[in-house]
Amino acid sequence: MLWHSCLLNLNIPAVFSPTGPLLPLQNQKCPSLHPVRVNFSVEYSLPYFQTNTIIQNIVVNKDSDETEVYLGCQNAIVAVDDSMGKKWELKTGPIGSSDCETCPVCDIEIDPEDPVDTDNTVLVLDPVADLYSYLYICGSTQYGICYRIDFRQPKLKPTCFYKKEQNSLTNCPDCIASPLGTKITFVEDRDTALLFVAASVNDKVVEKYPRRSISVLRPLSTEDGFYKIMDGLTVLPNLLNSYKIDYIYSFSTEEFVYFLSLQREDPSRNNSAFQTHLGRLPISTPEVWMYREVVLECRYEPKRRKRSGYRDIVYNGLQAAHFGHAGKDLAEELRVTERDNMLYGVFTVVNEQGERQATSALCAFPLKKINNAIDMGVECCIQEIFGKLREIKTTVGLLLLQNSEGNYTCKHKATLVSKPHYRLDIFNSRMSDVLFTSVLVSIIDNHTIGHFGTSDGRILQVTGCCTYFV
User: Where would one find the signal peptide in this protein (predicted)?
Assistant: First the structure.
């Protein structure tokens, strides 16, 4: 990217001082700067911690006496301090190994056909971390059961969250994580901790000790398992192998928990287009019939299509997301306040074969507008039903585990809003030769700073707003 000089061209008369007139402002120029390309060969000396396997999860604990970072790696959980020094390590695999510290804690059968290496797909702090120093771990082995450790204790002792008598081959509320991917948001509601779980499933995952696509649970008071708050939603049995829902990100506000996923538009067709879906459940009443979904799109719409030769682009595939706020510069451009909740997403173009293109876009969604689009979509659906224009538009491909007799309106069904909600690419299609794989947005003074990880291992930092960025 280039640094640019600027020209002040204000239609303002000359300015006078006690010693005489000054030059008119319209003739003054900013200092001329020659364009300088960024030098990507510069090496920086930064503190780091080297793991033996790929890092699968990262959790930062700022509520401890000193900041700690917990790393979920294959077969291990590692804690490091803010200087990247190792504090402790807990072995979570391989299954059957004498080194595994969590393996013998739970009384659960081992499937000899399952992999022995544990991917730590879930790593989450207790929602009241300043009072309860608990870290919850759920892995890809042992049917996705979870463990809890008290990281303030001098000797780590994993607690098993699997109550054998309440679980079976066909019903397992304590089976949480899926080896295909799991996202969990842990919230506090009226002195109760709730886990909102989104898991990718197929016939193998639901065959024994089944996991569900969407579920809500709370830890038992006996601290040895979970209680199902809702029966949950899961993929229809006949679509388990053809319809994968890839959950990418989850976050919460005071009212709702949100899930972001990538899935096909038509579950019955394996060549249908991919879409990014945002699902929403209320925290106070997490019932199946309250579940809502809307399709999110990030678009590029050139203003001068005919002259420029550019075409509209729909970036349909979410790569990563970040929930936060906007600095003053970006907030003014987006016509929101600095207090408004913002969902940032980096998107790419995903073709019908599921292949991601080397092109990226960034869209900023004010959360209040997403909620408004959901609520308006449900209302429109109700009006159309009573106008006999069409049938209820419920969630596509998900089995609703509820008794819905007598409920005929969208307000009483898990509902997919029919109209996509979209925003425009902040980069105006300039990121046409890079694939973003992660995003973090921070605020320094009045500036909004975007930090982007790329598929080739680089980190790109961008500051500014919609019409000007560096």
Answer: 1-17
Comparing CA positions, the residue from 55, 210, 202, 57 lying closest to residue 122 is 57
Write down the residue that tokens 């596509």 correspond to. Answer: 396
* Structure tokens that stand for 224 in this block: 């040895």
CA 124 distance to own-chain centroid = 14
Q: Is the pLDDT of residue 397 over 80?
A: no
Phi and psi angles of residue 308, each rounded to the nearest 5 degrees, phi first: -80, -25
Spatial contact of 231 and 402, defined as CB atoms under 8 Å apart: yes
- Distance between CA 151 and CA 133 in Å, rounded? 6
What are the chain's domains?
Answer: 54-229 (2.130.10.10), 236-470 (2.130.10.10)
**17: which residues sit within 8 A by CB, 6+ positions away?**
none
Torsion of CA 373, 379, 381, 386, to 10 degrees: -170
Which stretch of DSSP H or E encloses residue 149? Answer: strand 146-150
Token pair of 372 as six digits: 């408004």
Contact 291, 417 (CB under 8 A): no
